[in-house]
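Example 3.
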Amino acid sequence: MISPGKARLEGRASINPMPSLHDPVRFLTGVGPEMARRLAKLEIRTIRDLLFHVPRAYRDRRLVTPIAFLKPGTEATVLGMLKTVRVERRFRGRRDVSARVWDETGDLRLVWFNQPFVEKALAVGESYYFSGPVEPFHDLEMHNPEFEPAQEGEDSRFPRVTPVYGLTQGVAQRWLRARIEDAVKSLPGILDPVPEPWRREHDLPSLREAMEQVHFPETPEAAEPARRRLALEELLRVQISLLYARARHRARRAARSLSPGAPASERFRAGLPFTLTRSQGEALEQIGRDLDHLEPMRRLLLGDVGSGKTVIALWAAVRAAGAGTQTAILAPTTILAEQHAATADRLFGGTGIPYALLTAATTAKERAHILRQLADGTIPLVIGTHALLEKDLAFHALGLVVVDEQHRFGVRQRVSLASKSGIEDAHLLVLTATPIPRSLAMALYGDLDLSILSERPPGRAPVTTELLRAGSVESLARVLLAEVEQGGSAFVVYPVVEESEETDLKSAVAMARELSRVPALHAAGVALVHGRLKVEERRQAIDRFRSGEARILVATTVVEVGLDIPDATLIVIEHPERFGLAQLHQLRGRVGRADRAGRCVLLVRRETSEAARKRLDIFKRVENGQELAEEDLKIRGPGELLGTSQHGFPEFRAVNPVADLDLIEGARTLAQDLLQREEMKGGEAKLKSWIEAHFAGADLYLQSG
Ligand code: ADP
Ligand code: MG
């Protein structure tokens, strides 16, 4: 059923016929290769992505506040003429922009922290809309406002409610708005997969109306149902793919029952140097039951860093080996693969199984040897990175695949991995330490059964969190030295590898240099690790830290992902406002791993916004990753939480997991119903073409490779 879609906005004759939604954005007039590259930073690659780039906010031009009526602690829009603007040099070379704007009722100071380029975008004597938080200072001032020239007389031509989009370097608000306006004006016919009665019941517009209204609503209120309709579309897309993949997988594949391996895995368990926690025991039981079946297991093991997921994976590997099959454990980085191997060494003792380690660092000769042993079945366990996915790798009898995904892989990779030939018959266990709200887990992992490790192993010392005022290198050095003198070692984490022109964020490279200049720290040893180092250099730095030769490890967020250094007692995070709560939580999990109490110190700058401080206070207060994830969800607006690749959920731009809980649940049943209906109409072939017609591009999830 193709809806003709009456054009609600006047079409312009000059616009080319609309390419289809899954065409690249550069098919749009005004988007060249360079702009397409910049848009990709916002995860906008196709026209569909562009249309789903939901506004972060709306500026209601009917609601301009006269400057004299501004209230502290609110978000507001003022319309005024720019009186002055200048760059102000601050401490440590930071450059702020300060400006004054006035209207008939008064004048107001505007400040942009660390964004010197703003100065060039503003012209004294011109009128602008400025929107942002109003903060009490000596007087009121507005911090980091968004702005847009006010064009006199043009107002009638512009929608009164203007969308405000999330941007990136080199993509201006007005430019993006114009591209989206063009795309909306020339929308092609759009198939709406959601039956009308369902939409009516949930008060949602059609897909086509939603695409228009979310960007250019008549009132800000009209935008919300439109956003929800787009959210539903995203959720449906994922659910349809997951359910389809799962059904196909279950129907066509038979795994081996690993029950003959039960005695071996029980011996392994009995030989462990510790007792499993209650939730570890429950997870083992659930996994054991799955592994005994001929239906391939598809299970997610969710647990905070340090909750003991690896030992469970190894237990399953021993069971697989006992049943005469092989296991592949896939880690996101070489260092983590090596760490799993070290854990295996530690825990296997007399009850373990032989294993091989296969990473990018493996020599060609070793690799050839390992490949032979995997092919003839002499090695029951291989631990490695993506190197395990290469084509020439063949298993004698692969029984189990463990993916330690942390948060590096998205839904897409996971499903394509599960359906890779040779792997598809195996049982699948996915490990993740991403603290994820339950609602979101449902949306993202709808095809997996869930086991949760809800407690930390006993004997773990607690980690305390402190917020300290960021100061000089010397004051940081004092904090670190105090820790070293008490026998501890410390991570110091920075958001960037190197300094750059655009920001004056402190960087790992520069600070490692500065800290090494402090003689006492130099003596304690300062190592440096970041993503731009070669694997070998990275490993050396981490080994120096692990062995205690270097007591300080300066790092970027590479340390976030599962790195286990039991002796680390302190983690200092600079610019903590640059990290999401989930990310901070993972960082905090790096310490307090052994029996010694851990400390997490956040260095907070004076100019850190009120909102960011609130977030950090929540982080300080809440220790549980799950709870933190729920909190994070509540504070961030729609699109913000999930819109960036940083969070590892590029699938969703419009979904607001708090407000859309009903849709998240509804999408699953709706997807099931739709799939069933289509399949009843004409079997699998019909079903596949229906999916392609309505969810073009979703087949990405479905194809292998
Ligand atoms: P995760 O992968 O969930 O981050 P690991 O499996 O790496 O956690 O476990 C972290 C550390 O805790 C490892 O050194 C592991 O041997 C140890 N450990 C795991 N389970 C327990 C337990 N029940 N009691 C004590 N120590 C445990
Ligand atoms: Mg781990």
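The chain is about 40% helix and 20% strand. Residues 259 and 292 are 5 Å apart (CA to CA).
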